[in-house]
Specification:
With 311 residues, the protein is of the alpha/beta class. The chain is built from seven helices and 19 strands. A hairpin with a 7-residue loop joins strand 15 (211-219) and strand 16. Bound molecules: NADPH dihydro-nicotinamide-adenine-dinucleotide phosphate. NADPH dihydro-nicotinamide-adenine-dinucleotide phosphate is lined by residues 117, 149-155, 157, 174-175, 179, 240-241, 284.
């Protein structure tokens, strides 16, 4: 099977690219990946995506984007791209079904996944207290006590953001210092309602069917000073990094040291002509749905131009 444009991923970037290619009369195939709709399907109400004055459920927003693309005629298929050969055009993608698709252009929109600690309790309280996005969910914890796990720039940024909304913000930091930049550390230190718990790990979470009530913590784990204690919190925010979904590319595309795809300045072009990247997979900085949708649009326009110039 051959397509002028293969779109890999079904978050805001992938679906927007599908909408734009289809409207430009460029036949494309979108392969949805493991999590149809991407990261937004894991959150509750989205209040910062323009156009929805009452907010919109994350799952609904993604379903709407898919329906909009399909209504325009987009070819969207379930499946996972397990490998891709970008060494020559047309490019060849292999799916988990064993099928292959050849494509003149490829838009990679496979997103990034928030890293979790791996505690069973994180799943138990997912969407009921556990979140990996303060900008998305912080609003629901106004005037409440919350904790942020991590000591990097993201954790500091999330803690500062939450400190504007919440009563008290704990930062749970496994080392005796913050890894974050001096500027970010300073911003955290200026907030009276942020309390940093150094040398501290999370052992578990507790609560009821109504939601999270607290976290079991351990200070100086594995040492003679080891000390277990609990904190009462309504929200538990993970900020221990994101993992861009680029493994299947097998190092064929230029990545930054964290594994994000590097795009050429002011375009979505990668270092391989005809291969474009959109959304979180190429965005270590903003990681917002609206930004991903924007780059999905840009990638579709870039692919359209490439196809016109390389007939
Ligand atoms: P980082 O990798 O920089 O930091 C991750 C943090 O999580 C570290 O403190 C790390 O601890 C901690 N951590 C990792 N795994 C665990 C675990 N299993 N248990 C407990 N803690 C854990 O990720 P960020 O998302 O903060 O930043 C990613 C990149 O984006 C960085 O380059 C950062 O500078 C950049 N960034 C820049 C911003 C800005 O300039 N405004 C804003 C946000 C991000 P430890 O230190 O012990 O390893």
């Amino acid at each position: 099977m051959h397509t002028p444009c293969l779109i890999i991923g079904s978050g805001p970037a992938g679906y927007t690219a599908a909408i734009y290619t289809t409207r430009a009369a460029i036949p494309s195939i979108t392969i949805e990946g493991l999590q149809r709709g991407g990261q937004l399907t894991q959150t509750t109400t989205i209040e910062n995506y323009p156009g929805f004055p009452d907010g919109i459920d994350g799952f609904q927003l993604m379903d709407n984007m898919r329906l909009q693309a399909e209504k325009l005629g987009a070819d969207i298929r379930s499946g996972l791209v397990t490998a891709i050969d970008l060494s020559q055009r047309p490019f060849t993608a292999t799916l988990d079904s064993g099928d292959t698709i050849t494509a003149d252009t490829v838009i990679i929109a496979t997103g990034a996944s928030a890293r979790y600690l791996g505690l069973a309790d994180e799943k138990t309280f997912a969407g009921r207290g556990v979140s990996a996005c303060a900008t998305c969910d912080g609003f629901f914890y106004r005037k409440k006590n919350v904790a942020v796990v991590g000591g990097g720039d993201t954790a500091c940024e999330e803690a500062v953001y939450l400190s504007n909304l919440c009563k008290h913000v704990y930062m749970i930091v496994r080392k005796d210092h913050l890894r974050a930049s001096a500027a970010m550390r300073e911003r955290v230190e200026q907030r009276d309602n942020i309390e940093i718990l150094y040398n501290t790990n999370t052992a578990g979470l507790f609560g009821t069917d109504d939601g999270l009530q607290g976290a079991h913590l351990v200070r100086h784990r594995g040492t003679p000073q080891e000390e277990a204690f609990d904190i009462n919190i309504d929200g538990f925010f993970l900020a221990i990094g994101h993992q861009p979904n680029t493994d299947f590319l097998n190092n064929q595309i230029q990545l930054n040291p964290e594994g994000y795809i590097i795009t050429q300045p002011d375009t979505t072009a990668t270092n391989i002509p005809g291969v474009f990247a959109a959304g979180d997979v190429a965005d270590p900085r903003y990681r917002q749905a609206i930004a991903a949708a924007g780059t999905g649009c840009r990638a579709a326009l870039d692919a359209e131009r490439f196809l016109a110039q390389n007939k």
